[in-house]
Target: Peptidase M20 dimerisation domain-containing protein
Amino acid sequence: MKPTQIECARGGLNQIPPWTTVSGDVRLTPFYDPVDVMERVEGYVNDINANLGCLGTRGPCSKYTLEGDDVDVREGKLEITWNDDRESVRQMEGIACDLDSPGLAALVTATEEVKGSAKPYAITGSLPLVRSMQRVGFDVQITGFGLSKTYHADNEYVLLSDMRDAFRILMRVIEINDER
Model:
């Protein structure tokens, strides 16, 4: 799980906000059941709420329960909500390329011929359409041709020379597969 946004109630600098929301996403590696992951995370949240007194603190004044007649909320609480239902989440299974596939072999060969070397690597993520296509037998490969450090960056860009090489690589992949 990766937090990507934090929001809390507005108030004075000397006030503890009555609520804070941390939003983020989950990047699954292949071979994990997304619904099982949801259920485990929900179990962890329930365990934390049931055992607030066992959580670590930073001294005697740092605690998750408040006392006094003028306190609206007496005990802290962690809640988790999901943007998707379980059936939708089931489609978000992590994907993995078949290391023995002809498509991967063709892509590596073509990349080596055009760029001089190929260094396949894996990153985490979920692409429902790709996973569905793999399930019905398509040899799906995912690749990028630009600088990976610029993917999804604020200043995302691609070099024309990388796109030229990408075109040459894809043309060579087609040739290799046609020769089979």
